[in-house]
Amino acid sequence: MAVVKAARVALGIEYAGDAFEGWQSQAHGRTVQDAIERALGIVAGEAVRVAAAGRTDAGVHATAQVAHFDTTARRPATAWVRGANTYLPPGVAIRWAAEVDERFHARFLARERSYRYVLVNAPVRPAVLAGRAGWFHLPLDEAKMAAAARLLLGEHDFSAFRAASCQARTPLRLMHEAAVAREGGVITFDFRANGFLHHMVRNLVGALVYVGKGAQPPQWLGEVLASRERARAAPTFAPDGLYLCGVAYPPGWPLPGGGRIIARPCFTFVES
């Protein structure tokens, strides 16, 4: 009997993190990975295991998660998208699928990742965006936060913004973008780097909010960064407003945007 060679399929996935208990598979089965694998398994007619570019925590969302899986089933790309979405809960959807060769790996080949934190800055907490955006009630100075964020650019040891449970082999990361902008009552924090440590973005947002509310000057962020001491930084900010919104791969793969996949969320209807 001839052996059927497995094909590797790359996927683009969007999900609302507040509907799941994180990305990574758990025994209780209430994670994004569990839901994706169940749906793909039905379409493939066999067990499927998925690997993702970023293993997001509980409550963290994604507009541009990238994953891959191997299967001996042969299906058109539309079947992996529409077929799997039929079996997925409302909080998650496969946006695209593309067959790639066995050298592709969603996690290990990713050379950049982008995150956006969406923060509602208003006296009253939002209701419609509950679980989908962070919130801070006191006025924030976005210009001071932007000045502080620029101190993060370049390669640094980000130990001061690393969770105690982080398992990364090195705290060194190369930050390509660190920007803060406001539109009405919504402030966005954009970070793009060659990689991120556990809770790094949420810890950076917490420190920037300290600067924005006037508790610390912009240069304080640089001092905390240089100290490499987590105890000197601000508390970890809530996961509600955090989105994995971009992954970039080397050229040559049949992926959207030539391998540069960006889908940044934007909420502009909140009153200032």
Strand count, sense and closure of the main sheet?
11 strands, mixed
Question: Could you tell me the strand content as a percent range?
Answer: 25-35%
Beta-strand segment tally = 11
- The run of helices and strands is EHEEHEEEHEEEHHEE
Q: Report the radius of gyration as a whole number of Å.
A: 20 Å
Chain-averaged pLDDT: 95
- Count of discrete alpha- or pi-helical segments spanning 4 or more residues: 5
CATH superfamily of the largest domain: Pseudouridine synthase I, catalytic domain, C-terminal subdomain
| CATH architectural category of the largest domain | 2-Layer Sandwich
Determine the oligomeric state from the structure.
single chain
Helix content: 10-25%
How many structural domains? 2
CATH top level of the largest domain is Alpha Beta
For the record, give the distance between the C-alpha atoms at the N and C termini, rounded to a whole number: 68 Å
**Structural class determined from secondary elements:** alpha+beta
Overall 3D shape: globular
